[in-house]
Amino acid sequence: MMCFLGMDGVHALSPQAKGNVEPSFRCLQDRTCIYENPSSLDDVRGVLKTEANRYKDHQVHSTTGEIPKTRFQKAK
């Protein structure tokens, strides 16, 4: 998609720079493993699907201040 838009990606070269995304994944992992306590792969899939829908459809993004689904609809 980035090539289609004429953009280049910039990759982080150090673990410290990559650490910015880790808190989000850590939160998701904690929520999945601790709070939901899935006992099978199907349970994990259900939790991840619910979490992805919550993030896309309801959570206000910290940088843009908008809900991702609403932001993408406006962009269309």
Helix content: 55-70%
The Rg value, from CA coordinates, equals: 16 Å
- How would you characterize the largest beta sheet? none
Order of helices and strands: HHHH
Low-confidence stretches: none
Give a short summary of the structure.
This protein is mainly alpha-helical and 76 residues long.
What report would you give on this structure?
The chain is mostly helical. It has a domain at 26-75. Helix content is 57%, strand content 0%. The chain has four helices and no strands. The longest helix is centred in the middle third of the chain and has 17 residues, at 41-57. The chain starts with 14 loop residues before the first helix and ends with a helix. The model has no long low-confidence stretch (mean pLDDT 77).
Question: Which secondary structure elements does this structure contain, and how are they paired or packed?
Answer:
Elements: H1 15-18, H2 22-35, H3 41-57, H4 68-75
Features:
76 residues; mainly alpha; 4 helices; 57% helix; 0% strand
